[in-house]
Amino acid sequence: MRILIDGMGGDNAPQEIVKGAVEAAATIDEEIVILGDEEAIRKELKKNKYKGDRITVVPTTEVITMHDAPVKAIRQKKDSSMVRGLSMLKDGTGDLFISAGNTGALIVGARLLLGRIRGIDRPALASVYPDMKTMNPCLLVDAGASSESKAQNLLEYGLMGSIYVEKVWDRENPRVGLVNLGEEESKGTSMTKDAYHRLKNSGLNFIGNVEGRDVPKGVCDVIVCDGFVGNVILKLTEGVAMSIFKLVKASIMENFKTKIGGVFLKSQLTKMKSDFDYEEYGAAPVLGVNGPVMKMHGSSTATAVKSAVIRGIPYAKEGVVDIIRQEMLNVELEEEDYE
Amino acid sequence: MRILIDGMGGDNAPQEIVKGAVEAAATIDEEIVILGDEEAIRKELKKNKYKGDRITVVPTTEVITMHDAPVKAIRQKKDSSMVRGLSMLKDGTGDLFISAGNTGALIVGARLLLGRIRGIDRPALASVYPDMKTMNPCLLVDAGASSESKAQNLLEYGLMGSIYVEKVWDRENPRVGLVNLGEEESKGTSMTKDAYHRLKNSGLNFIGNVEGRDVPKGVCDVIVCDGFVGNVILKLTEGVAMSIFKLVKASIMENFKTKIGGVFLKSQLTKMKSDFDYEEYGAAPVLGVNGPVMKMHGSSTATAVKSAVIRGIPYAKEGVVDIIRQEMLNVELEEEDYE
Predict the structure, then answer these.
(1) Among A145-159, A263-277, B51-65, B95-109, whose mean pLDDT is lowest?
(2) Most buried pick, A170, A313, A335, B102, via CB within 10 A?
(3) What average pLDDT does this structure show over A150-155?
């Protein structure tokens, strides 16, 4: 298996990307291909004392930046690390593509270059959501690939998320929940009511509506919502958590007595903060396109890159894309049965 | 001025309601009318040793419960404390109505019995949102009165929220922000883009889009969003905050050393938790109906009731409803100018 890594994506490229790839290579048997500025990448490989032969470099001359407009960037920067990586995934010279680059461009690129899986109306970006009760994260779909979703899209998110969590995270019969105003079936917009109905009749392990207050409490393995709500959930969770950590810190710094208290608690509080750290969870999948593509956080460090590479392997190895493809054919056949 | 209080609404009625009313009466000059089961209310007044003459009781025989369907309850339970209170507000025998009862019924009742302000398409329920940076709360509109809002509704929310915050919270030229996927004007759904345009041209102090991560950081005084998103924001904030407090508590209880740390920090952490307490902020207004109606949290204690009464007075006294009414007439005149 050959893992393709975008060497030029994210705030810390190529330094942290290469460092993370080297660290990953030390623990896995897969080949790793880093795409990007050859000189810069070789320099980093040297800096990290990499002497093996399982990491290779594919030189590219262009870079898609965070400020590039997605569609234009994918169409015009043909020799960018992102476009080249996606193309290698498409032609089979790579099995998994991971990038910390421009999210919009990655989604558009995956859709344009790999194509949607037949039957999937809208590919989705998933995100790993920290569960603050059991500390087992769950998968939130959609994290913002679309801002206006229809009920059928939400069904697809549930279906794809469920397959991913089962195969990649190795959780049996994942529980799927729908973000809504209230727990009752009758709650919500006409769209969420329709989505409820579709999810309920889908054969998935649908546990029903999940209210905002239960989202962080690990009540399900896959959280389904439209991309607008998903974006608000992810960013608000980060905002609230960081604000509270700042308040705790300020409480500790308040006076001599509280500072002593802080010393006694330091290691626990540091551990707690690291539980919220997305770095350990690896990257999040783009779902619904013809190939396993993963998105790392833009500010990923070497540790995050290493996790992303190692934890991303089953996305390709377990054939998740094929399973989704097959599942969508079954859905289509069932629909024909009804006609 | 005469303040009408629903003596039968909420989890702790009538005990905490009456106790809070008695505490409020000790600090304000206004008359207070408590509506509900006369015997039960008089018993509580006696228990709280109330001997004044500024609290009176209006006996009612029916109660709208949390489980009642809103429209049916308002139509059928004519002698409920809620319907009677709203009717007194309408006929001018009261100036402000406060309830901790069934939220849906209160909104429906306000709309049916008082009527919408001319020009307002959808009345909104506001909510006091804790600001975790400056500790000055802001007002979130809509908190869930409608689950499907149009761009024009969001403009109305901004307008009404701005007037309320200026007059009731005494903040000059309140900053209004729109919850969205990103900061740029071009982000979001077709609806939020349209709302952005309307808010920008409204004459309000519109600061633009606010992302989820900035919602808790006090970047604006009025947070505008549709009711679905508002509901998710409020409940998720509560869920994340409570989950983190539990984790902090568990960290403290972990071993002997951390327990000592906890002792040193106890008063600070307790204070911090109370900053998140909605009780001190008073109640939240129903906006866009012909009369000042306020909703208290269902689990309000006497302290919350006291705050709600005292902090609610300017909603009536400053003529907020009249100002909104006048503002909507101006909007209408301006629109005619364009024609």
Answers:
(1) A263-277
(2) B102
(3) 96
Q: Which amino acid, one-letter code, is at B108?
A: V
**Inter-chain residue contact A212 with B239, CB threshold 8 Å:** yes
- What is the interface pTM, i.e. ipTM, of the complex? 0.90
pLDDT in tens, A291-318: 999 999 998 999 999 999 999 999 999 9
In the block, tokens 């905050």 appear at B241
Bridge-based pairing of strands A222-224 and B31-36 is unpaired
- CATH class for the region spanning A122-282: alpha beta
CA dihedral angle for residue A148, residue A149, residue A150, residue A156, rounded to 10 degrees: 170
Distance from C-alpha of A220 to C-alpha of A206, rounded to nearest angstrom: 9
> Which H or E run includes B59?
strand B55-59
- Return the CATH number of the domain spanning residue range B130-280: 3.40.718.10
Spatial neighbors of A84 by CB under 8 A, at least 6 apart, are A35, A58, A60
CB B126 within 8 A of CB B287: yes
Domain ranges of chain B: 1-120+288-339, 130-280
Asked if B237's CB is within 8 angstroms of A236's CB, the reply is yes
Residue B137 DSSP label: -
Q: Do A248 and B248 lie within an 8 Å CB cutoff?
A: yes
Strand boundaries in B172-215, DSSP class E: 175-179, 205-210
pLDDT at B337 over 60: no
Q: Is B248 on the interface with A (CB under 8 A)?
A: yes
List the single best residue of A179, A228, A267 to mutate versus B (max B Cβ within 10 A).
A228
Identical topology for domains B1-120+288-339 and B130-280? yes
pLDDT digits (tens, 9 = 90+) for B25-66: 999 999 999 999 999 999 999 999 999 999 999 999 999 999
CATH topology of domain A1-120+288-339: Isopropylmalate Dehydrogenase (3.40.718)
